[in-house]
Every structure is written in C-alpha cells, then in structure tokens.
Write a structure and sequence with these properties.
alpha/beta; eight-stranded parallel beta barrel; 10 helices; binds flavin mononucleotide
Length: about 375
C-alpha cells in the first residue's frame, strides 16, 4: 500500500505537509501552477496588498556563500562554495489585489485538492487600515483560498504601521488578527517576525485575536557584508543599502529556537515552521518540535524557481521516514508532531558531571569562593 503523506492542519486537508512560503516562488500564476504540478502540498502566495509597491533598482535577492577551506564569506559566485544564506530587500507583491483575484480563482479551480493560502498585508492603527485587511481577506477567500496568512513580519517595510513594525507590537498583532477573524470564513494564520525579544509575547497577541495558527520565521533583520576591496556593501544601490532579511541555511537553528519557544508556550496550538529547510531532515526538526506543516523559500528559489527537486526529496524523505517507523504505528506526520518538544529544557536541568549540583544560579551551591577566584576585598 502506498504511504499516505496527507495531513490535516487548522482543519484543512493537505496532500502533504510541505508548502512554498510567501516569496518569489509564489509571485505569479504560472509559478504556483508549476509548484502544484511539481507536488507541493500547498503554496502561500507572495504577500498581496491594496496599494502598488515599487522595488529597488537592481537585484532584490542575493545569496551569501562560504568557502570550504577558509572563513571567507561572499556573495560572489565561485566554484566549491556552499550556500550560507539568502539576503533580500524585496517588498510585498508589486501586483495589486485586482491583479491577483482572477488568478487565485483560476489556480484553485485547476488544483482543487491542493492548498492555496493567500498572504495579505495592510496597515494598522486606524479603522480604514483594518478595513483594508478585511477587504483583502474577503476578496481572497471568495476566490476559494483555503486559508489566509497575515504578513506581520516583513522586515523592510518603510511604513511604521506595516510588516514587522506591526509584528513587534502585541496589541496591534491582536487587533489586526481580530479584525480579519471577524470576516474570515477560512483559517487565519499569523506570520510573526523573529526580530523581537520574546516571540511568545506577540504569539499570545495573535492567539488572543483568534489566530488559528502561528507561522515563523520570516527573514531575520540583517545587512549584506562589505566588500574589502571596494568598501561597498555586496548589495547596494548607488552605494546605499537598507536592512533586509536573512533566510536559508544560516537561519535554520535560529528559527528552530523561536519555534521551540512557541510550541512549548502553546502546546495545544498549531504551528507552521519556516527557515532554512531544504531536506526532509531539516523539516523533521520542525515537526518534532511541534509544527504540523513546514514552508520553504530559499531552497526552492535556487531549484528552478519553484523547487521541483526539493519537493520530490521532501516527499521521498517523508515516505522513507514513515516506512522505516511503520513498526511504531506511525502512519502520518501528525503522529510525530511535538515528540521532541519537551526535550528543550532550562540549562540548569541538564545533568552535570559526577555528583555536582547546579541550580541555575539561584543558590550559593556551585559558586567558587571569592578567594578561590583571586578577588581581593
Ligand atoms: C526574496 C524574498 C521575498 C520574500 N517575500 C516575502 C513576502 O512577500 N511575504 C512573506 O511573508 N515572506 C516573504 N519572504 C520570507 C519567506 O517567505 C521565508 O519566511 C523566509 O525566506 C525564510 O525561509 P527560507 O529560509 O526557506 O528562505 C521572502 C523571502 C525572500 C528571500
């Protein structure tokens, strides 16, 4: 019997738990159709807004690579270098809602069994902007979108009431989520920024607003490196750069730490994990920490724009994994979600050598006497 890769997440049935995240791979109708043909279980559209945006002159995304035999990191293409990360300063879709609406309907009709999630973004702080969120949500769900993802996390929006500027404010996160929930007939996922002190705070805001799932991570706020010879940033326009977002392999461990905080704080809630995934081995980390689905961007961008080989390997990896563990009775990825969530503990809970005791710095035991440290009074 063929292994069943399907899963249900926030009440929506997925052919498999792998999605393309909101980014260039999902910026057009043709890309999304190709992605479904290639086998992705779902796609999240490039973020749709009401107003047109204008991107920078020149490249919006570049890839940082590391040498195997030196510490050199550079975006310059060279043989033998391995991918370290992607860096981008691309804004949301430069196509407006009117452009997207007929396309969303056509995509959904062509692939009714695959999951189409609309990523949307408007401003915040007044009723007009909240109505914009509602307008976007209603228009997308009317075209058959299976869920809505709120972009509360783009790290390079100029407007202080958009993107990660909203995502950094737990009250705004809550208000925006609640406004969308008031009109939504499909599940609402909140995509949060990792660039805050404690992502659990913003997640609580989203859940209080009624979010059906938390999605993390968007890209991490970052800068490209400066070229030693030209003294220019490796990405710049007329010598200038602004902060952008880091994705790809470099953020996998960072994003896992954020996800671990989230799934431990809200063990009964739904999570979609993103950050540095290109193989099933990477994805499995997110599942074991408590994610029901995962999303991919950088690896897909580098694989024929929509990741046909990446999704083939993800599906093959999941099949191999379920077959190898059939004796445990695992028949779906849902059976392993969260299995390692509680293995992340406070440092003081990790065993010390011998009989030594350590209480997390709260008690005197374990501290050296001042005289042992050579501290003179
Ligand atoms: C060029 C580029 C554009 C992106 N645009 C969006 C966007 O419009 N909306 C969004 O929610 N995330 C956007 N992202 C973030 C990705 O969806 C994803 O969260 C991030 O790249 C981390 O995943 P990765 O490590 O697989 O790249 C973008 C990322 C890149 C590299």
């Amino acid at each position: 019997m063929a292994t069943d890769l399907s899963t249900t997440f926030t009440g929506v049935r997925f052919p498999n738990p792998f999605l393309l995240s909101s980014a260039p791979p999902t910026e057009s109708e043709s890309n999304i159709l190709r992605a479904f043909e290639a086998g992705w279980g779902g796609v999240v559209t490039k973020t749709i807004g009401l107003h047109p945006v204008v991107n920078v002159v020149g490249p919006k995304t570049k890839f940082l690579r590391a040498d195997a035999d030196s510490a050199h990191l550079s975006m310059k293409k060279r043989p033998g270098a391995a991918l370290h990360s992607s860096w981008n300063w691309e804004l949301i879709s430069d196509k407006t809602l009117d452009w997207w609406v007929p396309r969303l309907g056509r995509i959904k009709r062509a692939f009714p069994g695959h999951v189409l999630v609309a990523s949307v973004m408007a401003g915040s702080g007044n009723d007009t902007e909240l109505r914009h969120w509602q307008e976007l949500a209603v228009a997308c769900q009317e075209q058959g979108c299976d869920a809505l993802e709120l972009n509360l996390s783009c790290p390079h929006m100029d407007r202080p009431d958009m993107g990660s500027n909203v995502g950094k404010d737990k009250e705004l996160v809550s208000i925006v989520t609640k406004a969308v929930k008031e009109v939504a007939t499909v599940p609402v996922w909140a995509k949060l920024t990792p660039s805050t002190t404690d992502i659990v705070v913003e997640a609580r805001g989203a859940l209080l607003g009624g979010a059906d799932a938390i999605v993390s991570s968007n890209t991490f706020t970052s800068l490209p490196l400066i070229d030693m010879e030209t003294l220019d940033f490796e990405v710049h326009v007329d010598g200038f750069v602004s902060t952008g977002g880091l994705g790809g392999p470099a953020i996998l461990p960072l994003s896992l730490a954020k996800m671990s905080q989230l799934t431990q704080a809200f063990p009964d809630k739904s999570f979609s994990g993103i950050g540095g995934i290109s193989t099933f081995e990477h994805a499995l980390n997110y599942f074991l920490l408590g994610c029901g689905t995962v999303q991919v961007c950088t690896a897909a961008m580098l694989d024929h724009a929509v990741g046909p080989n990446v999704i083939r390997e993800l599906n093959a990896g999941l099949t191999r994994f379920l077959d190898a563990h059939a004796d445990k009775g695992w028949t779906s990825i849902a059976d392993v979600v969260g299995l390692r969530r509680d293995r992340v503990v406070a440092q003081s809970k990790i065993r010390r050598p011998g009989e030594k005791d350590y209480r997390g710095g709260y008690e005197a035991e374990g501290y050296a006497e001042e005289k042992e440290l050579g501290i003179k009074k």
